[in-house]
């Protein structure tokens, strides 16, 4: 069965600090997809990234970067030079290749303060 | 811009009444849509998978007679909460998309 663990319930940082959100997953499939979503206070989930299991190349998008490590079943998300607007709940999710359901982690509440 | 829309964004209803929530894919056809429920400060829990032209697939523990799903077209799925009770108060979110999997803005239901 697939499972996603986000051990960090809440993280508080001061603006301009770098912050890494951890995500560890479990699956028996060799083909799977990993996602990160941002949920600001408004509630809407904002898609950030989708990564397939065959692509271990790390990705950078502006201040966001993702580190995919199959050896440790982790897909961590780093925000560089955090800003107050980054304050939100961030969810990691997994979809196995043979299915179409997303399994979500419990989310990490990120608070960026001035 | 948004690729999945939901309506209404917020609804308050009295106990015992039914509420319908619409989910639309805006610029693509979705043979499958997904309905989630989220309680405050909790994660998203999949309720059911909506299939165009056929019956929805419900997750274990979700009452199909209470949460009616209809997926009558390739761009519209509806979730009807029948005979709503205060414990049905929650944030309901739909999702669609094969690869990217976008989410609607959600519907906050309050049952009084």
Question: Care to describe what's here?
Answer:
Chain A has no helices and twelve strands. By secondary structure, chain A is mainly beta. In chain A, the strands form three sheets. In chain A, strands 2, 5, 6, 10, 11 and 12 form a six-stranded mixed beta sheet that branches. A four-stranded antiparallel beta sheet of chain A has the order 3-9-8-7, with no helix packed on it. Chain A has a two-stranded antiparallel ribbon with strand order 1-4. Chain A is globular and about 45 Å long. By secondary structure, chain B is an all-beta fold. Chain B has no helices and eleven strands. In chain B, strands 2, 4, 5, 6, 9, 10 and 11 form a seven-stranded mixed beta sheet that branches. A four-stranded antiparallel beta sheet of chain B has the order 1-3-8-7, with no helix packed on it. In chain B, a hairpin with a 5-residue loop joins β9 (90-96) and β10 (102-103). The mean pLDDT of chain B is 93. The A-B interface holds A 35, 37, 42-45, 47, 50, 91, 95, 100-102, 104-107, 109 and B 32, 34, 41-44, 46, 49, 91, 93, 95, 98-106, 108.
């Amino acid at each position: 069965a697939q499972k996603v663990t986000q051990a960090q319930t809440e993280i508080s940082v001061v603006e301009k600090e770098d912050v890494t959100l951890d995500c560890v997953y479990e699956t028996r499939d060799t083909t799977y997809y990993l996602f990160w979503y941002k949920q600001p206070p408004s509630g809407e989930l904002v898609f950030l990234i989708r990564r397939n299991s065959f692509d271990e190349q790390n990705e950078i998008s502006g201040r966001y970067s993702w580190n995919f490590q199959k050896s440790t079943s982790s897909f961590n998300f780093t925000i560089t030079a955090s800003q107050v607007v980054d304050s939100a709940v961030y969810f990691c999710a997994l979809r196995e290749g043979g299915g179409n359901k997303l399994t979500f982690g419990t989310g990490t509440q990120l608070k960026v303060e001035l | 811009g948004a690729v999945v829309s939901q309506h209404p964004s917020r609804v308050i209803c009295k106990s015992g009444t039914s509420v319908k929530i619409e989910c639309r894919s805006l610029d693509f056809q979705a043979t499958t849509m997904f309905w989630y429920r989220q309680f405050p400060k909790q994660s998203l829990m999949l309720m059911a998978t909506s299939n165009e032209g056929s019956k929805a697939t419900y997750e274990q523990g979700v009452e199909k007679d209470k949460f009616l799903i209809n997926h009558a077209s390739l761009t519209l799925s509806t979730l009807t909460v029948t005979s709503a009770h205060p414990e049905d108060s929650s944030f309901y979110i739909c999702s669609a998309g094969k690869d990217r999997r976008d989410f609607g803005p959600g519907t906050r239901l309050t049952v009084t």
